[in-house]
Design a protein that fits this description.
homodimer; about 450 residues; alpha/beta; Aminopeptidase
């Protein structure tokens, strides 16, 4: 039934998604403010087209939130769909094979910024709703909460949820913003890492100096920053920030053994990244390093002369952006504070250091003994023909923990992306097959979740 | 005599220098090729105006060299002036108070890229020649060799000197491309450091990755590069490259004691840079750290996301530009090789490292028991009223060692800049007083150098 509906409408679905992808809704960049509004309005229109009773673009202190609902009977359960319409910046732009905001299909994949994360995966839900409404098979109430600030850490969504608890009450939250292990190995994400993201600045002399006249006598902010970053991890790739691991809950050997059973081919993994060797915390496997261990990565660094040729300068300042991924029970605010205290201590005399905490979020663990989890499992068995594997992702969706805290509702992370989709990177893409497979699976979830 | 000539012509001299400064002759940037030619032609015209017999713009594999001469009697000695018409890039452009190529005078200082280095200091020689020719007081022959590639390491000048030894023969080379200790403490530079300048690249995965999904499991090129840079120096700020110090000639305690007598106020030095503390190799004073010790500075670093806000990326590549200043007897080619061998060894499995040696030059030491040095000393006594102090600079002019090797001629480094002139930095400037003081001093040098 849903399959034939998809088959009849697949070209239109893709065209609509392309319209969605063409709007450059980069939340991190101020000059995209109008495009953000345009995108929210686009969603509102498409939600009405799909059959919701009400849809609204609601202001926040940042980019607006799109809220919609279709209440068929207040006594029935309510599924709330969460997604985000903002995307990551596109640099380095020169590595894109096609323009990031001119979507196109190549080799069965949709290429565009946001193709997977999260426009493609979010749009599946709107089309699944359209099917259920037209087919008269929507078995319960449905709500949508779609934000425009996920890629910058959802700074306003928690406040929004607190202020609007009345319109956001629901029984379960369904989210497609994660990946499958592979097309042949469907999986459901049962864990997300938390995040603390900071920007640091090392300031030396108050102006750039000639590296000959001053080199060797004055602290060079780049050398200093590099040395400070190096000291954040030891030779075993353990993070050296005092008390960093204090709140980490240890995982039982049984759980680690279960994790090791998930299909994972280290050779394929290395080949897909063109690396000769992996590198991570001693004593843990690659899956454990991203699934159950906290990490620290420099996401950007800059300072001094970065143009063509040689400039012999001892720069005044150097900068880095640092992301720490956290595991359950670690608190981003506390981690950011531990980082700052330690980082400031690492600075030698002669430089000033500034640490700016940009955003953060808690980790999340999804229980597997719930009706919702079992409905997700059954719906994937129906569409993929295989039982999905529960899987802990290394990524973060901070708002999932906020939903639990504010609304008291758990989320189901049923995503249809692949790790090879290059989200946050040049040539982001999303499998056309999985886009349609998602639209097929979602109505099954509604059916199994509401059946007696 | 020369003083009244300067007084009568000072506005014209400044206007001519401004015309020179207005041409953006940045040798490191390909798009400035035409401006480089324009600058060379400008110099040729001004040299003819000043009274040379011949002036020519001569091609090289890079930017051209301007050569000129005035031979009054082949049996008399010949002084050759060396200078360069190229300038450093202007970034960070936003820190300039006035446009780098729109020169202006503020508080008695000429502000422009090249105001000191080297257009201002070079132009003093052309105006000093004009005086001597008009006043009929030129006591010997004079030649000019003015290159356009000093700021990129003079890659073609040595070859040029070898090919044109016949037209470059001379008795002494006079160079104004260095600084005075201060207006009240005139000095002559008797030592220059050598240089080895490299660019390094650390390559991890073949595309940027999501720092959540992959962070902690894959070597992050920025973290790796930072750690490799940190390992280039130990806690005592000594460079750790094996054999790096092998060729360094040790300085006697007597020499170190003499150096310590040069006037130097560490409090003023720190204040002028707005730093609370200096940082350098343990066991050496600030003057020694720049004068007699080799050093290593990162001049630029970049990788990952450097824009506004947060992007959670584990980048594919990270880069740095690294400059090592060398002391007499250290060979840049050998040092670059030692660096590369060591740096490659510092890389963990899972990344590739590329090292690109951009350019280098030998250090230089000037003898003080020569007629030329004594003439420079006397000429400064006459113009400044004080005996100049011999001083070892931390900077590099690689071609000075090449001149000695190819032409067998020593150079006199009689510069009129100040350390506060911000050369290579935003708001480069040159004291108007010292510009005129230089024009006054140069004819004295010619007089004392040629007197019986």
């Amino acid at each position: 039934m849903v399959k034939s509906f998809i088959e009849e409408n697949k070209d239109r679905f893709l065209e609509e998604l392309f319209d969605f992808l063409r709007i450059p809704s980069i939340s991190a960049q101020n000059e995209r403010k109008e495009d953000m509004l345009k995108t929210a309005d686009f969603l509102k229109r498409k939600l009405f087209d799909a059959g919701v009773d009400s849809a609204e673009v609601m202001a926040t202190d940042g980019h607006p939130v799109v809220v919609a609902q279709k209440i068929i009977n207040p006594s029935l359960p309510t599924v709330m769909i969460y997604g985000h319409y903002d995307v990551q910046p596109v640099d380095p732009i020169e590595l894109w094979k096609s323009a990031p905001f001119l979507p196109e299909v190549r080799d069965g994949k949709i290429y565009a910024r946001g193709a997977n994360d999260n426009k493609g995966q979010l749009y599946m839900h709107i089309k699944a709703l359209e099917f259920m409404v037209k087919n008269n098979s929507l078995p319960c109430n449905v709500k949508f909460i779609i934000e425009g600030e996920e890629e910058i850490g959802s700074p306003n969504l928690k406040k929004f949820c607190i202020a609007h608890q009345d319109i956001l009450n629901c029984d379960v939250i369904l989210v497609s913003d994660t990946t499958l292990i592979s097309f042949d190995t469907p999986s459901i994400t049962v864990g997300l890492r938390g995040l603390a993201y900071l920007e640091v600045e090392v300031i030396g002399p108050d102006h750039d100096l000639h590296s000959g006249l001053f080199g060797g006598a004055v602290a060079n902010p780049i050398n200093v920053l590099a040395t400070m970053i190096a000291k954040l991890k030891d030779d075993k790739q353990r993070i050296t920030i005092p008390e960093f691991y204090t709140d980490v809950v240890s995982i039982s050997n049984q759980e680690r053994e279960d994790m090791a059973k998930a299909p994972f081919d280290i050779q394929k993994y290395k080949k897909s990244l063109a690396i000769s060797e992996v590198l991570g915390e001693e004593g843990y496997s690659t899956i454990e390093r991203t699934g159950i261990r906290p990490t620290l990565d420099v996401c950007g660094i800059w300072g001094g002369y970065t143009g063509e040729g040689a400039k012999t300068v001892l720069p005044s300042k150097a900068y880095a952006k640092i992301s720490m991924r956290l595991v359950p029970n670690q608190t981003p605010g506390k981690i950011a504070e531990l980082f700052e205290n330690y980082f400031l201590k690492l600075a030698p005399a002669g430089v000033q250091v500034k640490v700016n905490y940009l955003h953060g979020g808690m980790a999340y663990v999804s229980p597997m003994d719930t009706k919702a989890y079992k409905a997700a499992e059954k719906s994937m068995i129906q569409s993929f023909g295989k039982k999905p594997i529960p899987f802990r992702s290394g990524g973060s969706i901070p708002v999932i923990a906020d939903f639990e805290q504010v609304l008291g509702v758990k989320s189901i992370l049923m995503g249809f992306g692949l790790e090879s989709d290059a989200i946050h990177s040049p040539n982001e893409n999303f499998s056309l097959n999985l886009f349609y497979k998602g639209i097929e699976t979602i109505p099954y979830f509604f059916k199994y979740y509401t059946e007696k």
